[in-house]
Amino acid sequence: MLGFVFGAASPLRAVAITAELQPWTQGPQPSFTLPNISGADVALDSERGHVVLVHFFATWCEPCREELPALNRLAARAKSTVKVLAISVAEVDLRVRRFIETTPVNFLVLLDRERAVTKSWKVSALPTTFVLDANLAPRLVVETEFAWDSVNPGKLTDTLSIATTTKPSHPGG
After folding, report:
1. Phi then psi for 41, rounded to 5 degrees?
2. Residue 13 — pLDDT band, cuts 50, 70, 90?
3. Are 35 and 66 in contact (CB under 8 A)?
4. Distance CA 16, CA 10 (A)
5. What are phi and psi of 80, to 5 degrees?
6. C-alpha separations of 100 from 2, 37, 72 in Å
């Protein structure tokens, strides 16, 4: 179990206390390329070599709005060892850009205008976050808001590195 990765949960975030990162057991997720809020295409494959959080959100979702600053702080603490790709689900570009102007983040915000990536990753709740290892294989998932301030990025990357190097190989996979 990966429970040692996390510290004490914030007393101000009672809802997030019960949320836990769960092991992902459903195999690989499809790669994707989506535009960022400036219009440039960003490929998931460009983040290979880093632990990546793929975070699905919407600006109208209150827990999502509260979670983005915590993800921003995690990315800052990680100093580029953990990357965040936030994916806005089925929203108008202008609305997302205006939201990010008022809630600035230091990670990429991508636009899944038609929900193609959301559907292909079988996301059914917002927020949902997948934690990918350096080979971009999903290892953990949380399908609700989460206390990202309680995550030690160094321990997270160490844990995922160990899981990746000690994972037994399976024929055909």
Report:
1. -75, 140
2. very low
3. no
4. 8
5. 75, 0
6. 32, 9, 12
